[in-house]
Automatic annotation (TrEMBL):
<keyword id="KW-0121">Carboxypeptidase</keyword>
<keyword id="KW-0482">Metalloprotease</keyword>
<keyword id="KW-0645">Protease</keyword>
<comment type="function">
    <text>Broad specificity carboxypetidase that releases amino acids sequentially from the C-terminus, including neutral, aromatic, polar and basic residues.</text>
</comment>
<dbReference type="GO" id="GO:0046872">
    <property type="term" value="F:metal ion binding"/>
</dbReference>
<dbReference type="GO" id="GO:0006508">
    <property type="term" value="P:proteolysis"/>
</dbReference>
<dbReference type="Pfam" id="PF02074">
    <property type="entry name" value="Peptidase_M32"/>
</dbReference>
<keyword id="KW-0378">Hydrolase</keyword>
<dbReference type="GO" id="GO:0004181">
    <property type="term" value="F:metallocarboxypeptidase activity"/>
</dbReference>
<keyword id="KW-0862">Zinc</keyword>
<protein>
    <recommendedName>
        <fullName>Metal-dependent carboxypeptidase</fullName>
        <ecNumber>3.4.17.19</ecNumber>
    </recommendedName>
</protein>
<keyword id="KW-0479">Metal-binding</keyword>
<dbReference type="InterPro" id="IPR001333">
    <property type="entry name" value="Peptidase_M32_Taq"/>
</dbReference>
<feature type="active site" description="Proton donor/acceptor">
    <location>
        <position position="266"/>
    </location>
</feature>
<feature type="binding site">
    <location>
        <position position="295"/>
    </location>
    <ligand>
        <name>Zn(2+)</name>
    </ligand>
</feature>
<comment type="similarity">
    <text>Belongs to the peptidase M32 family.</text>
</comment>
<feature type="binding site">
    <location>
        <position position="269"/>
    </location>
    <ligand>
        <name>Zn(2+)</name>
    </ligand>
</feature>
């Protein structure tokens, strides 16, 4: 009985998964190649697929098989129990939400995307505000459907990180904030001068050559082109499956570092997706363990590899081939430029490794206040600007470089932003474990050899899919539960060295 029920459950879930993957491809197309006037049809298509997927996930067959398996759970293997756990969680959340609400959330997101793009281009927050307001209302309604007795933001966070409690999340964010604020202050007070303008004073960098460089970097890191592609998008992202994981980037002809690090970041996401088991495709064991872990992979490759001194032995020589004006730069100068701590950067995706998290905290605090009803959407630009002044000592002159800069709220993704900082903390913990396991990892990176690191991540993180809950996965990979301790140690050591600081001041308690 349980074997038949389990087979039926997997067959039903495979149908759901394939619908969702098809929806992902349409979403990718909307952001990358769709004609400008294609929005009305795409809105209807995405809404239809959302409705079909919701119907399939909440149907009586899945409900009945889950009940059968609940009564016969002792006969299931550990992998089967994990599969049932994940499908049950998704089924129960979906069942709690009316189909009409799912359709409206999808329609609003599809309609909001082009409005956000034009509002950002025109510096017109008022044009986007009604869509943000509707997203806030729909997200509140969504959270209320799932559990009206709980903090609605905690319920929304679970869409992106279901197995770390809000208390755990806030504890990690608090540790990061309490570490970075004094560290950044000390860096800014430091008399050490880095080669911050190493690239920005070398003329312009054509988009075509930047794309060629990014393709070379992806090849060096081990991106399998037969299962991926590189395109451009207003906001870089990655999407796909273990068979097809695509990355995007964008170009600024005054500075090539933005496109290089965006590309490496998205490579980390794609590497995780491609490292999932082909055999488990369209099952929870062939799906990622949610966004905190996903972000750990992108931040690990972007920061621990891409911004490392060792990697610049490889990257600078590649850069020289595409941009001869960089021939005069030393590896040390390039490394310093890539790791400077900015005093005046307003854009999150262009932020340095430390102030990046203050950008994230600002978004987290604003979206939580919106969901809690503590602020109105109309207040967002002013509150955003005030928080930038308080946290970073700067204020945007326009909403385009302020509260309109990120794509996430146009998608209605509220609860997403904390996963960026959670992922960075996980990346440090995972990379520390990888360093302990792989002999002379720095030397291998400097030689352009990434096979062992990719294999370590595949074996310890990727191949498990959603088999383990978040903390269990990190403990399996590193031997310890998830904390921010490794991140604190990593940034303290690295930036004390870069800026000649008193390292004892930054040693974690």
């Amino acid at each position: 009985m349980s074997a038949d029920a389990y087979a039926t459950l997997c067959e039903q879930y495979e149908h759901v998964s394939n619908i969702q993957h098809a929806r992902g491809v349409l979403s990718w197309d909307q952001q990358v190649t769709m004609p400008e006037d294609g929005t009305p049809a795409r809105t209807a298509q995405l809404s239809a697929l959302s409705t079909v997927a919701h119907d399939a996930l909440t149907n009586d067959i899945i409900a009945d098989t889950l009940e059968t398996l609940r009564a016969n759970s002792d006969s299931l293997s550990s992998d089967q129990k994990a599969t049932v756990r994940e499908i049950r969680r998704k089924h129960e959340r979906a069942t709690a939400v009316p189909e009409s609400l799912i359709a409206e959330m999808s329609e609003t997101a599809s309609e909001a995307l082009p409005v956000w793009e034009s509002a950002k281009a025109d510096d017109d927050f008022d044009a986007f505000a009604p869509y943000l307001q509707r997203h806030v209302e729909l997200n509140r309604e969504y959270a209320d459907c799932i559990d009206s007795t709980r903090d609605p933001y905690a319920v929304l966070l679970e869409e992106f990180e279901p197995y770390l409690s809000l208390d755990h999340v806030e504890s990690v964010l608090r540790t990061i904030r309490e570490t970075l604020v004094p560290l950044i202050d000390e860096i800014r007070a430091s008399e050490t001068t880095l080669a911050t303008d190493a690239f920005t004073t070398q003329g312009t960098y054509s988009s075509a050559n930047q794309e060629a460089l990014c393709r070379d970097v992806l090849t060096t890191l081990g991106y399998p082109w037969e299962r991926g592609r590189l395109d451009t998008a207003p906001h870089p992202f990655s999407m796909g499956t273990s068979f097809d994981a695509r990355v995007t980037t964008r170009f600024d002809e005054t500075d090539p570092l933005g496109s290089v690090f965006s590309t490496i970041h998205e490579f980390g996401h794609a590497s995780y997706t491609l490292g999932l088991s082909d055999d488990a495709y369209a099952t929870p064991l062939g799906e990622d363990r949610d966004l905190s872990v996903h972000e750990s992979q992108s931040r690990l490759w972007e920061n621990h590899v891409g911004r490392s001194r060792a990697f610049w032995d490889v990257l600078l020589s590649q850069m020289n081939e595409h941009f001869p004006q960089t021939d005069s730069l030393s590896v040390r100068e390039a490394y310093e430029a890539a790791n400077q701590v900015y005093e005046d950067n307003l854009i999150r995706v262009n932020a340095d490794e430390l102030t990046y998290h203050l950008h994230v905290l600002i978004r987290y605090e604003i979206e939580r206040a919106l969901i809690d009803g503590d602020i109105d959407v109309a207040e967002v630009p002013a509150i955003w600007n005030n928080k930038y002044e308080e946290y970073l000592g700067i204020q945007p002159e326009t909403d385009a470089e302020g509260c309109l800069q990120d794509i996430h709220w146009s998608h209605g993704n509220i609860g997403y932003f904390p996963t960026y900082s959670l992922g960075s903390a996980m990346a440090a913990q995972l990379y520390t474990a990888a360093e302990e396991s792989i002999a002379d990892l720095d030397g291998k990176i400097a030689a352009g050899s990434f096979d062992e690191l990719r294999e370590w991540l595949r074996r310890n993180v990727h191949q498990h899919g959603a088999r383990y809950q978040t903390d269990e996965l990190i403990k399996q990979a590193t031997g310890s539960s998830f904390t921010a301790d490794a991140f604190v140690s990593y940034v303290s050591k690295k930036y004390a060295s870069l800026y000649s600081l008193d390292q004892e001041f930054h040693t974690p308690l």
